[in-house]
Amino acid sequence: MAPCQNSNRVIAFDCKGEFLVLKIVTKGRNKESEEEMQKASVSVQRPRKHTPIAAVDESAAVEESEEEVQTASVSVKRPRTHTALAVVDESAAVISKTRVMEVMEKEAKKADYGKPECEKRIEEAVANLELKWRKAVNEMRKEHAASLQKLEKELELKRMKAVKELREEHTQRVQTLEGEVRNLKAEIAAMADQRNGESNPEIQNRTCMGGTWQEQERRE
């Protein structure tokens, strides 16, 4: 089926070579009868004409093939001409690049000079914040150093006090130990004297009459 471009009709083809022209009608708009629609449909049978195949001239085909082979061989035998490449001047290229870069830098500088006020304000605010941040960091470092020094001094004082207390305790213990040792020595000497007196009766008599020799010497 193929629709028509300039009308509301459709051409329907058949496998036998027949075709029908149909008119499309919508309900309620076009009230034509069935007879008019039958009149509009036309069936036509067109006979297909088979065109005979032209006879091939073998001699002409052979001549054409020989001519093509000859032209191909001539094209192969022709020498190839090499075109000289254009020499590139590197110095000129470098100079042009430097000029382009200079121009771009100048334009960039001009653009920097022509910045809007909002960007300038933002840059100033950022710079002020950086300065404040640096000042705050320096102050914090100073406070930290001062607190460290204070702690070191306090620790040193505590250490000195502890060392002093330990030394005093050590001296007291040494003194007490020395006193105990002296007392022990005196007790040991007294015990030895008693044993010696018991073994010698003469010494006992002397002790009974007037005490020990040491006491008599002291009296004299």
Write the layout of secondary structure elements.
Layout: E1 2-3, E2 9-13, E3 18-23, H1 34-40, E4 43-45, H2 58-77, H3 90-113, H4 117-199, H5 201-210, H6 213-219
Antiparallel strand pairs: 1-2, 2-3, 3-4
Task: Provide a concise account of the structure shown.
The chain is of the alpha+beta class. It has 6 helices and 4 strands. Strand 1 (2-3) and strand 2 form a beta hairpin.
Question: If you had to describe this structure to a student in words, what would you say it looks like?
Answer:
- The chain has 220 residues and is α+β, with helices and mostly antiparallel strands.
- It has a domain at 2-45.
- 69% of the residues lie in helices and 7% in strands.
- The chain contains 6 helices and 4 strands, in the order βββαβααααα.
- It has helices at 34-40, 58-77, 90-113, 117-199, 201-210, 213-219, and strands at 2-3, 9-13, 18-23, 43-45.
- It has a 4-stranded antiparallel β-sheet with strand order 1-2-3-4, with no helix packed on it.
- It is elongated, with a radius of gyration of 68 Å.
- In terms of DSSP E residues, the strand content is 5-15%
- Helix percent band: 55-70%
| Strand order in space, largest sheet | 1-2-3-4
Would you identify the regions where 5 or more consecutive residues have pLDDT less than 50? Answer: 42-47, 50-56, 82-88, 207-214
Number of helices: 6
Q: How far apart are the termini?
A: 170 Å
Broad shape: elongated
H/E element sequence: EEEHEHHHHH
Write down the overall mean pLDDT: 70
Q: How many beta strands in the DSSP annotation?
A: 4
Secondary-structure content class: alpha+beta
Sheet with the most strands, sense and barrel status = 4 strands, antiparallel
Radius of gyration: 68 Å
Oligomer: single chain
